[in-house]
Amino acid sequence: MHPWAWWAWAICAAVTVSLTTNPWLIGLVCAAVLVTVLRRRSDEPWARSLGVYLSMAGFVLVMRVFFATFFSATSSGTLLWDLPQLSLPSWAAGLRIGGRVYLEPVLMACFDAMRLAAMLLCVGAANTLANPRRALRSVPAALYEISVAVVIALTVAPQMIESLARVRRAQRLRAGAVTGVGGLARLVIPVLEDSVERAMGLARSMESRGFGRTRAGGGSAWGILLGLLGSVCLGIGAFLMLGGSRPSPVWVVLLAAGALALGAALRLAGRRLQVTHYRPDDWSRPEWVVLASGVVAVAAAVAAGRLAPGALDVTMPPLALPALHPLFLFIVASLAAPAVLTPPPPRVSDWLAWTARRSEPEQEQAGGRADLDAERLRPRGGTP
Amino acid sequence: MIDLIGLSVGYPGRPAPVLADVNLSIDEGDLVLVAGRTGTGKSTLLGTVNGLVPRFTGGTMRGAVTVAGRSTVDHAARDMADLVGFVGQDPLAGFVTDVVEEEIAYGMEQLGIAPDAMRKRVEETLDTMGIADLRRRSLRSLSGGQQQRVAIAAVLAAQPQVLVLDEPTSALDPTAASDVLAAIGALVWDAGLTVVLAEHRLERVMKQVDQVLWLPGDGRAEFGPPAEVLAHADVVPPLAQLSRAIGWAQVPLSVRDARRRVGREHVEPSVIEHEPAPVGPTTVRARGLSVSYGPVVALDGIDIDLTAGQVTALMGRNGAGKSTLLWALQGGRRSTGELTVAGADPRRLGARAARRLVTLVPQTAADLLYLPTVAAECAQADEDAGAAPGATRALLERLGMDLPSRTDPRDLSEGQRLGLVLAIQLSAGAGVLLLDEPTRGLDYEAKHQLRTMLRALAADGATVLVSTHDVEFAAGVSDRTVMMADAQIVADGPSREVCAASPSFAPQLARVFAPRPVLTLDDIDWASVRAVRS
């Protein structure tokens, strides 16, 4: 599966969530995203980050509700608790700590936090479903250098941690526990030296293998001009869009023109660099399905907002059960469609089980133990 | 194929040029070995072939290097990538991606080769280097030998005509090293590649090289057939030692040649029976020592006794558990089982107290150094160990290392740096010394020096355990050899018996004189040999 297809899908899910404060819709979208992730993530190391994002989302939710409960300034609605109020000096007059807690503002804060948490979850879903390295491999050629830098950073970080552990162990041999400012120098200097040496080694290797060889010198003036124009158009368009509440043809045109100009600039800049890609991820039916499911969900959310203006925006007071619009179910079904309609990713464990089954007779004969070398049999993370 | 024309390279801050007016030309399809002591400019010479020197490393270059008519004066290293493949010392440090297949494709992507052609070439390269079954593995999970083969495959994919390798086997065990060298040999003989490689352990490669380029260190370069150049070079592999001792004008390049010649000339040495080293008290005693990392068993119930006054060599494949054993004996690695070092269990003591009993020189000795001068390091070592001021300095001199006080430890040669670390580690007065792969990157001279140091320490009653891949070094330094495989000890006995019996760990002289129990030249009574010959 193309990594950017998952990113597009996740961004669409995040956009859908951002359009609403209705807890029903947010909850349903989260459920759809979770189901898809659980069914379509692989079991490689980079795909194990969902737990981190879930706990981040939970943290956001808890913090927001906590602050709404103890620091809210609203003083109307259904009384929940009457807490003792902290008296503050006069310069902090706008602030309130403790006191009466009303249900409605707490609920509103909770819905708002749910929206943020759900967006975090969407980013987490993209990170779990799409291999970050492969995602960086298919950026436009103009951004190639940036993607290379990011990939190297991804590689170097664990190496530095490794060398830190090694130096720490070595310095313990010399002086017992490594503590204090003097101890810091003991660690930092050898680790830095090691890192610089590694970086030089990598640079030497890249240079002698032809990195940057096909780059024609200097950028074209047209490319730079187009890039500047595009950025200006996008900037003004975004300013107008955020300022005015309803769509006007001016900013729509400006945004479109800006995007086009930037695209053209990237393309021109990319032409300078003739790097080819080994086994590029292709974009075929499953990718279209994933993209379409996201776009349809956003469109349905917009339509729901038009058809029933109150359905997406929950306002309290008055305290009432938020409405569940039938279109919500359609949105969720659309977002969850990739969980069923896309092929499952190749999983290391399946692959291992298959090879073990296939080689069972031979192994019994040889009396050998099962191949513990999991990575040797690792299937590719791309399109099956 | 490669022409060096009036090549001179100098670095700022060094009075004499590293290379001075070198003229030579390497023929197509030759395997050329660049030999010389550390710091004589081997890496510099290799770097000039693809233009990394001086563009990348700094320094000044005069003269020219041309490869297949393309001069490095006009072409940067990246523009030579389709002509010269360059593999650095540490393959892992040169990897750009994280999967074998993508690493091999990387160079071709940079050259802009069409995806279809790339697919085909990746397959061909995987087959050439015999690594097709590793294609989807992560590079960090490979063994050292496999990593080196992937590194070679990664430059081969660009289909260069010249391959330049800087110490391709320095981190490898003997078996993996001969594997990699066999693969390189196949490239020369079957694919017609021109290969230039630098190597410290000449005995590993000299049988397959066509020419030797010896750098004496004064800026000259001597280029000629290996049998002649090695006869008087200052880097002396065991067979060259042998031929000098006997008085042959030409060095036999393989064990087979030497064996035939010894037989033809009836060199029948009488073996000196060395007195077995006096057995001191047992200082290290381990019973059922086990270490596991998660599900992986790294040490599996090791029983070992080490005695004072003895040097023990610890050998075995990469990953056999040698390092883990050393760290476990030092107490720095959590282990189960009984362990007594000089009457105490180092695991129960704090790191500082354990240091007074047992000390370890880790694999990358430079990790221990962090101060700007030798003197500062020595002073800090005295303080760390609670020793009298000047103790480390005195120890350094006792080890035969007279290092200038104001030198930055980073500017020392590998051998000198190892001596400094050894002195620092011994400053707390430990009687048990463990060394993890100290011979990596050392030339013959430095190895000899290390050997002298370790023997002297043992003679003073220290217990020494040294893990090494270098069979010649182990044969020379050790009284006893312990062989490990798969987390267990598989052989333990006098070096003479254990080494001579092992097919991959026997030193070259043992093979030449088999079945006579000869490990080093010291075992032979040369008076009798000369008497017979004259």
Protein architecture, described:
The complex is a heterodimer of chains A (384) and B (534). Chain A is mainly α and 384 residues long. Chain A folds into four domains: 1-133 and 283-345, no CATH class; 139-213, no CATH class; 217-276; 348-377, no CATH class. Chain A has helices at 3-18, 23-40, 50-71, 103-129, 132-137, 144-175, 180-208, 221-243, 249-271, 285-307, 309-312, 326-336, 338-341, 348-366; strands spanning 79-86, 97-102. By secondary structure, chain B is of the alpha/beta class. Chain B folds into two domains: 2-235, P-loop containing nucleotide triphosphate hydrolases (Rossmann fold), CATH 3.40.50.300; 282-511, 3-Layer(aba) Sandwich (Rossmann fold), CATH 3.40.50. Chain B contains 21 helices and 21 strands. In chain B, the strands form five sheets. A six-stranded mixed beta sheet of chain B has the order 6-7-8-3-9-10, with helices on both faces. In chain B, strands 16-17-18-14-19-20 form a six-stranded mixed beta sheet, sandwiched between helices. Chain B has a four-stranded antiparallel beta sheet with strand order 2-1-4-5, covered by helices on one side. Chain B is globular. Classes of the chains: A mainly alpha (384), B alpha/beta (534). At the A-B interface, α6 and α7 of A face β6, α4, α5 and α13 of B.
Question: H/E series of chain A, N to C?
Answer: HHHEEHHHHHHHHHHH
Number of strands of chain B: 21
**Pair of chains with the largest interface and how many residues each contributes:** A-B, 50 and 67 residues
Give helix % range of chain A.
55-70%
CATH topology of the largest domain in chain B: Rossmann fold
Strand content of chain A: under 5%
CATH architectural grouping of the largest domain in chain B? 3-Layer(aba) Sandwich
Main beta-sheet strand count, sense and barrel state of chain A: 2 strands, antiparallel
Give the overall pLDDT of chain A as a whole number.
Answer: 80
Q: State the separation between the terminal residues of chain A, measured CA to CA.
A: 7 Å
Q: So what's the overall shape of chain A?
A: globular
Number of helices of chain B: 21
Number of domains of chain B: 2
Q: For the record, what CATH class of the largest domain in chain B applies?
A: Alpha Beta
| pLDDT < 50 stretches of chain B | none
